[in-house]
Amino acid sequence: MGSGSEGGPLMLDMTPEDFRAWRGRMAPLRGGKYSQADAARDLGMTVDMIKRYERPITRNGSPVPRYIALACAALEARLGQQ
Questions:
Q1: What confidence category does residue 80 fall into, taking pLDDT thresholds of 50, 70 and 90?
Q2: CB-based contact 32:23 (threshold 8 Å)
Q3: Which of 34, 30, 9 is nearest to 20 (CA)?
Q4: In whole angstroms, what is the distance from residue 5 CA to residue 24 CA?
Q5: What is the pTM of this model?
Q6: Domain parsing of the chain, residue ranges
Q7: Backbone CA torsion sign across 50, 79, 9, 17
Q8: 12-36 confidence digits (pLDDT tens)
Q9: Which residues make Cβ contacts (< 8 Å) with residue 18, sequence separation at least 6?
């Protein structure tokens, strides 16, 4: 999920790779580990949905909906401020 440079628009398209990278960035903010179950709990969804969003789209994965990308960005921003 890219952010605009020099104040440009926030890009909200999130690929499965972006979603996995987001979970990796969340780990240090959550004490060193951020499992699929942690992400599911924080985003209010099932672990199966997290797995589906992390799976490559070419292997029956689902594109990450924009509202999930927004929720991920909000969680990361909030935890990054603490």
A1: confident
A2: no
A3: 34
A4: 22
A5: 0.77
A6: 27-81
A7: negative
A8: 688 999 999 999 999 998 889 999 9
A9: 1, 64, 69
